[in-house]
TrEMBL record:
The keyword Calcium does not apply. Its cofactor is pyridoxal 5'-phosphate. Pfam families: Aminotran_1_2. One of its GO terms (molecular function) is transaminase activity. Keywords: Aminotransferase, Pyridoxal phosphate, Transferase. NCBIfam families: PRK08912.1. InterPro entries: Aminotransferase_I/II_large, Kynurenine-oxoglutarate_AT, PyrdxlP-dep_Trfase, PyrdxlP-dep_Trfase_major, PyrdxlP-dep_Trfase_small. It comes from the Bacteria. The keyword Transferase applies. This is Aminotransferase. Residues 25-374 form the Aminotransferase class I/classII large domain.
Length: 379
């Protein structure tokens, strides 16, 4: 095989979704809702399509959306931001790539916490930097200061923190955030904070960003996603939020990746972000579907791991009395029961847990019931 494949493996998400498209299996693998788009998005985008420019918008994003993102975080997270803090990207994955390209140089080390979203390590490597992994452990996936410190060297440049954490659905505590911030300031590290699940929380708490910790203002790039906020993953509207001087650096990387992002989608997201009723409605829908999946799993004898956020629920196979490793379980369940899942070891390098699978809950309850029945029969 082409040796370049080793640096850029095929993503498990596309693998599982392609299998579902080919076989008709129920897709609880890749995270996306099945519902039609919210009318707030579709009416706004239709208007922007006919009434506004379809030409290159400014590279950092249309002013309306940069303002709307700043206002949204002011309202929902108490952050004091201006338009100059916000750079719009073509999805959070582009934002992650841009932040890595902007902040790391060949030979730098970047701390990644495992399980790690599968784009991080390949992007770090293709930037010429070296990923250094810090393992989190189920069932609580807590951040341990000694483990973080042990991974730091004079070449460490940055850490990537995904909070809330995909796939686990856990959220860093106030103490953990303070600890991570202290490590960054003590060792002079940048923090690339992938916070795309910030609004998808079911513990009733307001999201707290590492950006708001003391000393983190000038060294944090906070990444968000309209796809997650509005359950419209194909829209690929994301952003980086950083102190203006840092934002000017990351926008240089963005300008050479995609340069701009479709303006009509940006205007539509700007309108929808201003309306808290839209996010509230979607949140209520996901809270309900999450309840259906989690209760159904428990009834069918699956051991659900604790989590309070994201579109995902993790199942502990050992504790469920299933003697298969996660990859075998996922391969067999999609083939034999027609239900796709994500083996968490796909988000891990080196030795780690092989007994956890992730299921997506943001689906119509009737579809979840069908998946649960098929899983219970098959188990
Ligand atoms: N974030 C999605 C998930 O975790 C996957 C996105 C993708 O496939 N690129 O399911």
């Amino acid at each position: 095989p082409n040796p370049l494949y080793a640096a850029m493996p095929a993503t498990i998400f596309e693998h599982m979704s392609a299998l579902c498209r080919a076989t008709g299996a129920i897709n609880l693998g890749q995270g996306f809702p099945d519902d039609p788009p919210h009318p707030a998005l579709t009416t706004a985008v239709a208007r922007a399509m006919t009434e506004r420019s379809q030409q290159y918008p400014p590279s950092p994003g249309v002013p309306e959306l940069r303002d709307a993102v700043a206002a949204f975080y002011g309202r929902t997270q108490g952050l004091a931001l201006t338009r100059d803090h916000v750079i719009i990207t073509s999805g959070a994955t582009e934002a992650i790539a841009a932040a890595i390209l902007a902040l790391t140089s060949p030979g730098d080390e970047v701390l990644l916490f495992q399980p790690a979203y599968d784009a991080y390590a390949p992007l770090v490597r293709r930037a010429g930097a070296v990923p250094v992994f810090v393992d989190l452990h189920p069932p609580h996936w807590r951040y341990d200061r000694a483990a973080v410190e042990a991974a730091i060297s004079p070449r460490t440049r940055a850490m990537i923190v995904n909070d809330p954490l995909n796939p686990a659905g856990t959220v860093a505590s106030a103490q953990e955030l303070a600890m991570l911030a202290d490590v960054c300031t003590t060792h002079g590290l940048f923090a690339i904070c992938d916070e795309v699940w910030e609004t998808v929380r079911f513990d009733g708490r307001r999201h707290a960003s590492l950006l708001a910790q003391p000393g983190m203002d000038a060294r944090t790039v906070k990444i968000g996603s309209a796809g997650k906020i509005f359950g419209a993953t194909g829209w690929k509207i994301g952003w980086m939020v950083a102190a203006p001087q840092l934002a000017q650096v990351t926008t240089r990387a963005h300008q050479f990746l995609t340069f701009t992002t479709p303006p009509m989608l940006q205007w539509a997201v700007a309108e929808a972000l201003a309306d808290d009723a839209v996010t509230g409605e979607l949140h209520a829908r996901w809270a309900q579907s999450r309840g259906v999946l989690n209760e159904g799993l428990v009834q069918a004898g699956f051991a659900v791991l604790p989590g309070v956020a994201t579109w995902f629920t993790c199942v502990d196979l050992n504790a469920s009395g299933i003697a298969l490793d996660d990859r075998t379980f996922s391969d067999r369940m999609v083939a034999e029961a027609g239900v796709a899942s994500i083996p968490v070891s796909a988000l891990w390098e080196g030795p780690g847990p092989r007994h956890v699978v992730r299921l997506c809950h943001c689906k119509p309850p009737a579809l979840l019931e069908r998946a649960l029945a098929a899983m219970a029969d098959w188990k």
